[in-house]
Design brief:
It is built from four helices and no strands. The chain is mostly helical. The longest helix is centred in the middle third of the chain and has 25 residues, at about 25-50. The radius of gyration is 14 Å and the shape is elongated.
C-alpha cells in the first residue's frame, strides 16, 4: 500500500464522516460506517496482496471498501469475482 493509497483512504474516511454529519446521522452510525469501511478496505488489501501472487486483484476504492465492509467476506468474494471474471 503506497502513500497515495493511504492518503486516499484517509481522505475517504474524512469525507464519509463529513457527509454523515451533514446528513445528521447519529455519531454511532457514522462511526460504524467508517469502521466497516476501514475493515473492508483492509480485507481487500489482504486478499489483493495474496491474490497478486496468482494474478487476481481488484481496486480498493471507497465503494469497494464500503461494500466489503457491509457484506463481509461474501462482499470481498463478490468484488473479486466481478473484477476478475465478469468485468473482462
Amino acid at each position: 500500500m503506497g502513500v497515495g493509497e493511504i492518503a486516499a483512504l484517509v481522505a475517504a474516511v474524512i469525507g464519509v464522516y463529513l457527509v454523515c454529519r451533514v446528513m445528521l446521522l447519529p455519531l454511532k452510525w457514522t462511526m460504524k460506517l467508517i469502521y466497516n469501511g476501514i475493515l473492508g478496505g483492509l480485507g481487500l488489501w489482504v486478499v489483493n496482496t495474496i491474490g497478486a501472487l496468482v494474478g487476481i486483484t481488484a481496486p480498493i476504492t471507497v465503494g469497494t471498501a464500503l461494500l466489503a465492509g457491509f457484506l463481509g467476506l461474501p462482499g470481498v468474494v463478490g468484488i473479486f469475482v466481478w473484477y476478475n471474471l465478469l468485468a473482462r
